[in-house]
Design brief:
With about 300 residues, the protein is of the alpha/beta class. It is built from ten helices and 13 strands. The structure holds nicotinamide-adenine-dinucleotide. Nicotinamide-adenine-dinucleotide binds next to helix 1, helix 4, strand 5 and strand 7. It is an enzyme of class 5 (isomerase).
Length: about 300
């Protein structure tokens, strides 16, 4: 299959590109390399340094390589940056997605879109949150992702396309960007490796649905092959607290890290976990990597490289 991966030099996109190449797909990457690194990818992969905000360049590339599927992962992912500059966030995350949909329309490609589950459902959502809930995002990032989803639904109705939305939980694993929704895993691993005390904001009881990047890649591959439109939560369904996460990292490291407690950050969600019943039934997908196994892989990766020393 010919696949275009936007954001393919990013944390999740590079794992997805590796996996698609491994099964014999012809993969092209479009990435502006704002946070992505071309060095993460196999040197044989064509990386086009373009922005999804450039509609002309995007469509020209699509017309040249004629992808059957576009996996759209390019995004500004920093939730706090979206609060500081909502227009810039929407420029990439909303308008960029519209540009991807138009490029896909020009070549009759299907789009599989990386949306968010963790930043979508809001503070009062039932846990685990099913797809049917009305999203009430707490930041412009989640609003932009939801708006992009609405365009995808609109294109499916207008043009009969089979575009797909995957609402990802808090994704962690090797190559993780600390600014992402689950950046805390990379940051904690870095602090523990350096023998520094990780900072826990609030009481550490806040929970997230941490899902291993290998399971996310498997969900994308399944959605690519599934071929029908849909909106699916992609997570584990299990809420894990920050303190439990830290304890697991400590077990992997072989010593218990002593957290530094700091005041809770305003606007931070207390709880988030995704109901994955629909993905299990319709995509026959479920997360297979336990948190302990995923953390062990992430810690090993951090140990082998330059540990991230951020205050978290
Ligand atoms: N990491 C998570 O926990 C998580 C959770 C839910 C959803 N997602 C979504 O998954 C996708 C991938 O996230 P990630 O964690 O790998 O982040 P990432 O920052 O590592 O990857 C995003 C990639 O997009 C590229 N990019 C940014 N702006 C671009 C633009 N204007 N044009 C072209 N490329 C651009 C970046 O250079 C980077 O390579 C994003 O859409 C994100 O919103 C991530």
């Amino acid at each position: 299959m010919r696949v275009l991966v936007t954001g393919g030099a990013g944390f999740i996109g590079s794992h997805l590109t590796d996996a698609l190449l491994e099964r014999g797909d012809a993969v092209t990457v479009l990435d502006d390399l704002s946070t992505g690194l071309a060095g993460r990818l196999d040197p044989g992969v064509a990386v086009h340094r373009e922005s999804v905000t450039d509609a002309v360049a995007l469509t020209r590339l699509a017309e040249r390589i004629r992808p059957e599927v576009i996996c759209h992962l390019a995004a500004r992912i920093d939730v706090r940056a979206s609060v500081a500059d909502p227009a810039a966030d929407a420029g990439v995350n909303v308008v960029g997605t519209i540009n991807v949909l138009e490029a896909a329309r020009a070549v009759d490609a299907r789009v599989v879109f990386a949306s968010t589950g963790g930043a979508l459902y809001g503070a009062d959502a039932e846990i685990p949150s099913p797809e049917g809930l009305t999203p009430e995002p707490e930041a412009p990032y989640g609003t932009a992702k939801y708006c992009a989803e609405q365009y995808i639904g609109l294109y499916n109705r207008l043009y009969g396309t089979g575009h797909t939305v995957l609402r990802l939980g808090n994704v962690y694993g090797p190559r993780q960007d600390p600014a992402g929704e689950a950046g805390v895993v990379a940051i904690f691993c870095g602090r523990v490796l350096l023998g520094r005390r990780p900072t826990v904001f609030g009481d550490g009881a806040q929970t997230r649905d941490y899902v291993y990047v290998g399971d996310i890649v498997e969900a994308f591959r399944t959605a690519v092959d599934h071929g029908r439109p849909g909106v699916w939560n992609i997570g584990t369904g299990v809420p894990t607290s920050v303190l439990d996460l830290l304890e697991l990292i400590g077990r992997t490291a072989g010593h218990a890290p002593e957290p530094l407690f700091a005041p809770a950050r305003p606007g931070e969600l207390q709880h988030s976990a995704l109901d994955v019943t629909r993905a299990t039934a319709e995509l026959k997908w479920c997360a297979r990597t336990s948190l302990a196994a995923g953390i062990a892989k992430t810690y090993k990766w951090a140990e082998a490289g330059e540990p991230i020393d951020a205050k978290c």
